[in-house]
Records
---
Amino acid sequence: MRFMMFVCVAETAHVPTDASTVPDVEDWVKENDRKGTRVDGERLVGSQDAKTVRNRDGKVVVTDGPFAETKEVIAGFDILECADLDEAIAVAASHPMAHTHMIEIRAMEFGPS
């Protein structure tokens, strides 16, 4: 079963006083690539470079910034291949950004399973 995992960062994030307790992102990527639970993923450019696109009555409207007014922005994503939601939650919980920011996961409706 495939899951989309969004790595979300907040403007005001809790940063542990001992950063050595936060796992390394590159180690997480290598481990999940090796296990086959991470299919793909990338960091995204900052939200200051985002564009929102709408098509209203045949007119394309492009505005600057993320699509929603929130304190969190999507900083990256990973596509996970997991047996079930419980495994996807465990993989997301082990991501280093889960220690200081937020991870959102959603089952994908289409694609290989």
---
Amino acid sequence: MKPFQKAYIPQTEIDLLRAALQGKSLTFFEMYLGPNPSPERITTYIESVIKDSLQDEVWKNDVYQVAKRIVDVPAFQTQVVQLSIKRIDRKPCRDWRDFQAIKNQLVGPECEGCELFPAESRVIDSANQYFIWVLTDPAIRFPFGIDEGKSIRSEEALGKSKNQPFSKT
């Protein structure tokens, strides 16, 4: 995986997003806006989605496109970086090492991040898109996780476990 470079969302992709949203059913908008939203409210919602996506910082490499957005989180009394990750070819992705490298490159190697598996009532599953929320302060740690005070990286099997080889690139 090559290093990330700053990128932008081309107007054609923005136009495709707008057209895709405009083609959605009333039921789709009711999930976000409640029962029977007016056409004006739907239009306002679509434009707010477009505006939000244009405010994101976009990064690309040879495999991934990542939208980076800073979000205030009062519960942590800090900000987090929301990383929205998708493959450029839009196929599913699930490589932990890639996601760790993305977090390290775009936020910082000592900043902790997590992926949320939400309550079913909060699920949004409309694309092969993944989100990691990363604390911006490297001194803050989540109050959960494995903490044995060391970093262990090994290609050697432990019992029946297997690990993929480390990339040499």
---
Amino acid sequence: MNEIDGPLFDAELDGSEIKIDRNPDLADRIHRLVSGQPFCILCTQGQSQPYGSLIAYAFTDDLKHFFFNTQIATRKFKLLNECRRVALVIDSRCQHMDDMTRVDAVTVTGKAEQIQRGPEYQQGAEKLKARHPYLADFLDSTSTALFRIDVVRYLHVTRFQELSQWIP
């Protein structure tokens, strides 16, 4: 069990089986899905309450890290400082409105870390600016924080019920 991520869930309770997929095909499918969607839902928690936020994101080619930014004076920023364990939900539903069985989704779990201004901040900000040029001024603002998510695992779902796990 990964101390950052904790137990996945109790497969006996929900009847699901999780395949740990080491097939590079799965990594390619996840990469295509992540590349094809500009936004995702960031899932955070605070005071025993879950919270979801729509965010723009960028990621490293090896899928080990995601980057996003937020204003410092937000609930999102406060929650990220209370609990660094997060999840991202990315899906292709907008591309398959006529056939939901073709939708695939991934839940990315990991730990969010605020990046202080400096070389690493610049690298993450450049990745975000390349993917979302309209964020340039926002990223340069002193009222903005940049976060890096260190990925623990991906849970990929297809056809509403086929679940595979991939750990980068």
---
Amino acid sequence: MAAALLEKAAVLSSKHWSGAAAAGSRALELRLHAEGLVEEDAHAYLAFVDALRAAKGLTGEARARAVGPAHTKTVDVPLAIVRSAAEVVDLATMLADHGNPNLRADAVVAATIAAAAGEAGAGLMAVNLSDAPGDPRLEEARRLATAAREKVAALRK
């Protein structure tokens, strides 16, 4: 949704900013990527549930081999969501600063939505990595989500 708002803002900013067309193209790419990630996330969770069921009764290394790859996807897909959300916030900031001033509020709303998606992805990762709190992927997600939140706060000033 955030990237779609940016597509609109970019299309209507071509008279105000020479980078509007490129921003619109990137917003479209990010929207399509996000749509794919939603699907991937659902599949990752279902595959993890299936792996847990299949690993019932297994212990140790055998359980880790059975569940590990599916568990990894439940972390990697939300991390991709956080990364994408952070990029949407950056693009929203550019459109807010350079695009059509009548659509600045749309860019700020897009940044707010994207930052919330980043926070949600990082939160999901924290749950999925509750047994590995020092995982560098979680640290990256938290860093990106915090930076996105700070950029939104700056836009609102």
